[in-house]
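Figure 2 data, in text form.
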Amino acid sequence: MSAQTGDAADGLGRDDVPGLLVAVVAVELVGSAPAVVTASDVATWYPTLAAPPLTPPSWVFGPVWTVLFAAIGTAAYLVYRDRAHSWRSRALGLFGAQMAFNVAWSFAFFGAQSPALGLVVILVLDVLVVATVVAFRRVDRRAAVLLVPYLAWVLFATYLTAGFWYLN
């Protein structure tokens, strides 16, 4: 395949645009859905909590997650399109599991108003994101690199969640 149509050995091409858009939009929708459901808890309960040091202002989270979800969707697409790779199914399975725990964190922390439950969920998420990065690396190095900022943010979120649990 030429660089214009795209294959695992080259960059993304025109033929990749529909699949890439579907992947990014799907991840954005799945990732942002809990924010819509838990918005009232974020607005009413969250401000009553004692916050750990380095807690960003609430307005930071939306833009950060939007950028991260775009990178996550792109990474997933890069792995998805390599249909011949023996690690593809495992990598995508781990991807699905970590996305499920990503979504579950919002429901645990905000929906259940439980920093303790949020901490349990995010500790599992940490392990799953690391495993996903490793599995994605086996399929497409670029996909793994795209997940590194997400991993860093989730580790920071783990610190924040532990801080909220400890302080409240």
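Caption note: DSSP finds six helices and no strands in the chain.
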